[in-house]
Specification:
CATH class of the largest domain: Alpha Beta
CATH topology of the largest domain: Quinone Oxidoreductase, Chain A, domain 1
Number of strands: 16
Low-confidence stretches: none
Shape: globular
CATH architecture of the largest domain: Alpha-Beta Complex
Mean pLDDT: 95
Oligomer: single chain
CATH superfamily of the largest domain: Medium-chain alcohol dehydrogenases, catalytic domain
Length: about 325
């Protein structure tokens, strides 16, 4: 089968013909119908950290069940499913505590095991989540991360409540969905980004107000609004410092973006003003089911366009240059 594979840092993905996998006990084989492109793929491509190669990237995906392995029930060939990327085991202490996004026994699709930039992908059957009618393969694919991650962060971790003020910093593939989710949760939403076209889009998709991130004074003035939650979808030193500066006393800084490996901690805000910084990673399979249902009912409309899988390196280059708005799903 055709697959686009990571062969080493600072190299484009390489198209290879590899053997089609077959599902083992408790597994399914999925014919990929759409695979979302995520900024995390760039972290893999540009990181010098050792990683097993070759590896088929792509941790967002949806498709139809092609084959089921021994002992599988609950799904059937031909059924449209979304791939729950953490590929959790379902039996460890994390899975039993409904923290399956933290399951150490994956291996995570597209991060530690071959992913969705291919014609077929294999995963545990429990992680093939049925897609409701009315949800396209492209929508289902991006729901697995670009929608699931901000949903888990804002609803599951930050526990945004109706009537709260939420500032969303960074309107990339996750942040734009974060705006819509915060609005759905009943918050007053203020969106911050460096690109005017993204701010315009945010106003049309749930933001009550927008702030141009190129104007430091305007950003710092948000402190007077006393936001209850500041969600950082960028995660670099400057944005996390800003989030800590503008959140209200007793408020929550929700870190979602992974733009850098470390950032400053403003200890006064924590020790004297009871600010909390919350970490968040991906989401649970139950939350993915909820997200898919919300999309099916039109409550969330993730921005997604499609391109052929063969264009993957071009799409990654555009993403690197900041030229992608919303999410792109690749079609094999």
């Amino acid at each position: 089968m055709r697959a686009w594979r990571f062969v080493g840092p600072h190299h484009p993905l390489e198209r290879q013909e590899i053997e089609q996998p077959h599902p083992g006990p408790g597994e399914v084989l999925i014919r990929v119908r759409a695979a979302g492109v995520c900024h995390s793929d760039l972290h893999i491509l540009e990181s010098p950290a050792p990683r097993a190669t070759p590896l088929t990237l792509g941790h967002e995906g949806a498709g139809t069940i092609e084959e089921i392995g021994p002992g599988v029930s609950g799904v059937q060939p031909g059924q449209m499913v979304a791939v729950f990327g953490p590929n959790s085991c379902g039996d460890c202490r994390f899975c039993r505590r409904n923290e399956e996004n933290l399951c150490p026994h994956g291996p995570s699709v597209g991060l530690r095991a071959d992913g969705t930039y291919a014609e077929f992908v294999r995963c545990r059957a429990r992680n093939a989540i049925p897609v409701p009618e009315g949800v396209t393969p492209a929508q289902a694919a991006v729901a697995t991360d670009a929608v699931l991650t901000p949903y888990h962060a804002l609803r599951g971790v930050a526990r945004v409540q109706a009537g709260e003020t939420v500032v969303v910093i960074g309107l990339g593939g996750l942040g734009m969905n974060g705006v819509e989710i915060a609005r759905l949760l009943g918050a007053f939403v203020i969106a911050v980004d460096l690109q005017p076209e993204k701010l315009t889009y945010a106003l049309a998709h749930g933001a009550h107000e927008v702030v141009d991130g190129r104007d430091p004074a305007a950003v710092q003035a948000l402190a007077a609004r006393e936001p209850d939650v500041v969600a950082d979808f960028v995660g670099v030193e400057e944005t996390l410092r800003t989030a800590q500066q503008i959140v209200r006393p007793g408020g929550r800084v929700q870190l979602v973006g992974l733009g850098s490996v470390s950032a400053p901690l403003l200890t006064y805000r924590y020790g004297a003003q009871q600010v909390s910084t919350l970490g968040s990673f991906w989401g649970t399979s139950e939350e993915l089911r909820q997200v898919l249902a919300l999309i099916a009912h039109g409550a969330i409309q993730p921005p997604v366009t499609t391109e052929p899988l063969d264009n993957v390196n071009d799409v990654l280059d555009r993403l690197r240059r900041g030229e992608v708005q919303g999410r792109i799903a690749l079609i094999p």
